[in-house]
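Write out a record, fold above all:
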Amino acid sequence: MTLLERVLDRDRLIVLAGLAGATLLAWAWIAPMATDMYGSMSGPSAWMMTPVWDASHVVLLFAMWVTMMTGMMLPSAAPTVLLYAAIVRQAEEAAASIRAYTFAAGYLVVWTMFAAVAVVVQRVLAGQLLLSPMMELSSRRASAGVLALAGLYQLTPFKRACLSVCRSPASFVAIHWRNGEAGALRMGAAHGLYCLGCCWALMLVLFAGGVMHLPTIALLTVFVLLEKVLPLGRHTSSFTWTTGSALLALAIWQLR
């Protein structure tokens, strides 16, 4: 193995360890809280047991959404982050891992903004008595509507266009390349926007399945990851049509 290959392997391991560490830390908070919420609610989720939306409650709710988006979305961004780090290192940049973390930070900024919107949506739903104390839609029609929205969005050209970018790390990096730390942050944010365009409707399914329902969170995480890394080739359109149809069928079943 050449010196360059050893350096590349080292950087890849550093970046991968950082991404894995951030993801595991997110799940280390979300999983016990979700488990407790469907249990005694006397542990990590005890703060949710209040009808009062004061400042501390809103901050904790926002932190919960940010952490959840980190744990759910960061794994699917890993291929692009790792490719970016490798290209930076090959360009003889000394701080490849730092640039990669900056890229990831830009990506998470976008999902942090989504988390803020999700808190607002949750507040509106709670105010309209459409959200149960378990943070799930209390109306079958509302749940079916969310599932139908996610299913229909899977069928749109905009969904396929955003998914195509997320599935093509090399093309994304080549087209959106920017130099320096600020460039890394901008590239990460751009990738995050494409990812948001791809997955925002799927994230709303959390309201139908339960915002803190661990199986729903895990299933969506795996689905988003597979959607972006499976070797679909020219079958991307068929995949989104299949998954969209499945969500629409689930929406109809919800109305039974």
In short: The chain has nine helices and no strands. Residues 3-254 form one domain.
